[in-house]
Design brief:
Helix content: 25-40%
Structural class: alpha/beta
Order of helices and strands: HHEEEHEHEHEHEEHEHEH
Strand content: 15-25%
CATH architecture: Alpha-Beta Barrel
Largest sheet: 8 strands, parallel, barrel
CATH class: Alpha Beta
Mean pLDDT: 82
Radius of gyration: 21 Å
Number of helices: 9
Amino acid sequence: MTGNPPDDWQKVKKRVQRSDAERKLRSVVSRPVTVVVIVAVLVLGAAAGITAKLRTGATTHSNSRCQNAFVPAFFYGAGIWTQAAHSKPAPKVMILDITGMGAGTSPVPHFQSVVRQAKAAGVTILGYSSTAFGVRPLAQIEADVRNYKAWYGVTDIFLDEVRGVGSQLPYYRTLYGYIHGVNSGSSVWLNPGSYPAEAYMSVGNVVMAFEGPYASYTSIRVPSWAYHYSPSRFANTIYATGRSQVPNAISLSRSRNAGYVYVTNRSGANPYNGLPSYWSTENSAITAGCPDSAALSPSHVARLAP
């Protein structure tokens, strides 16, 4: 199905950008530099050298350049879905947003069709559900979880509008438990748009550690604790990015331990209503030097191990 979405879908399908206050990092922490000096002493008359080793960051920080592209598919047209899903390589993840809030009240045949095609191409689909910064009733989100599964065969969930503060952790812990109770082995993505309290790593398989424009992305600082986790636990979304800025955006995302990345030149109220003009080039750059088998796979984020 192509053409325009139904009027009721157009009415509710509006992405509202977070204010700068919501996007700002809640914790600005410089990455520490740890100096470890290991001294070997002489034993039994055999001379051994003295070794000094400088180490930055945590020992679990990966130097791997392998990343996955993902797509916030907040668009309707079947042609755009096909273009994204049949990219070479295909994005590992696409986020399905039906209403701008969740799964809606009834299945939409158009989305059932494009989801089937994307899944057949090997793409993992996440069902979008807003938490309204921790105030949306749990029952509504739980209904989204059930309906995405029943109507679209989607069991992985993207929880949007997360504040990431410690006081709301019980709310997200309840959701995480419910989603895994309904869909065993599923992946839960959280989107605070910046680094949350570290405890949120226990209630989300992947954390959207940045969502914002390139102009802000260049100056963020990564908290030191983030380097103790696998890159497969973090995603970065960078919009309003010019073509010439893409290489640096991707390079920064790698240095910041992000295993999933999406960059787009689009901006405005919904910078995700289509693919970036340079999508093919970006997709190739993100996965450059990584055979598909070596890239992060969705199975790598189905557990909470660092």
